[in-house]
Amino acid sequence: MSPSCTGTGPVSVFEAVPCPHSSNLEVLKSLDGLRSETPALPVGFPQSLEEELAWTGSSFADESAYVYNLTDADILELAAGLKHFKGLQLDGDHLDRENFPLPTLGLKLNLLSLDVHRGKGFCVVRGIDPRCYSVEDLTLVYLAVQAYVAKQRGRQDKRGNMLVHIVADNSTAERDNHHRHSNKSISFHNEEAGDVVSWLTRSTAAAGGKCIIASCYTAYNILATERPDMIRTLARADWPFALPRFQCRPILFYQNSQLIMNFGRAALLGSATHPRPTRLPSLTARQVETLDALEAIAKATQLEIQTQAGDMHFINNLAVLHRREGFVDGESTMDKRHLVRMRLRDPELGWIIPNDLKREWEDAFDKEDKERVWHLEPMPDAFFPLRKYPN
Questions:
Q1: What range(s) does the TauD/TfdA-like domain occupy (predicted)?
Q2: Residue 17 lies in a domain
Q3: Residue 324: beta bridge partners?
Q4: CA distance 66 to 122
Q5: Domain total of the chain
Q6: Which run of H or E residues covers position 315?
Q7: Which domain holds residue 295?
Q8: Would 15 be classed as within a structural domain?
Q9: Which residue has the higher pLDDT, 336 or 213?
Q10: How confident is the model at residue 333 (pLDDT cuts 50, 70, 90)?
Q11: Which tens digit of pLDDT belongs to each residue from 75-110?
């Protein structure tokens, strides 16, 4: 018997908003699907979320609100910490706040960590020049900054890969179509696990490739006001996820006064690299309508971040959606987009994870006896299979 998810509610159709920078009002005018007969919000969900996390791209007059520019003193402190750590002759997997001391910069990074977990949900640390470091030293500096933002690092697949290299690669059709190796734009999503998703930008594309983010809290507020039936749809436990394993669960959770969203379109609709097995249930028209509405609102309220080489992004993966702009690589190494992704959690500041998501978090963070593999450069598929993981 094929797996199934049981859902309820009438079906409607939604046409996505074409203009990504239209006002909220214009977005809402396009939410013209048939409303549910029971438009009330799910029990326990708030009418609105008046939080710092409920921002729009226009909330930020300039990037100084979310970019921390390292000072000369910060760079020197990182150099001293790097020398100290290397003198201990430890593997990078053992790097932490104690053996990579940052007495002054560390305090600043702790404040950024609070902003990621309890403030607006994201920050960028800027000022490292990748050309001044070996690949190993650059990775250690990244791990050091990271250690002061979120202490735990997550495994990103069953092989224990800790680093994911996001680079364009059209050597095969499969790689060219995979999110990780395509140069095409991708839709808004969360990572399957990790309270915080982080990227080190080793180099940028010749054109395009912006990091684009959007607030789940803002999307919630818009839908709760105009289409509460869609909030009910998102909160139902009948979304048939195909990856990384088949599971029926909600996209949207509200617990401990915190809104949590977790989904990706490839896991729900399939993709060229991840064709959806016919034995699995398809999304209903209402679910597709709701996904399209969420994408349209996210695009209308998004923040575009022009990334520079050496940037370190830290994004609250539970409350902020992210996507990528399409890009074109150049001929030189420094004109080819190369991001290194990690998934993080902080034991003190980390949010309580819903039961439906705990298995992915446990696989990433709680299996201390499992192997952890660190590839400092992109590796063949055998080391990091593409078919199982959409991102």
A1: 96-342
A2: no
A3: 211
A4: 7
A5: 1
A6: strand 312-316
A7: 24-383
A8: no
A9: 213
A10: confident
A11: 999 999 999 999 999 999 999 999 999 999 999 999
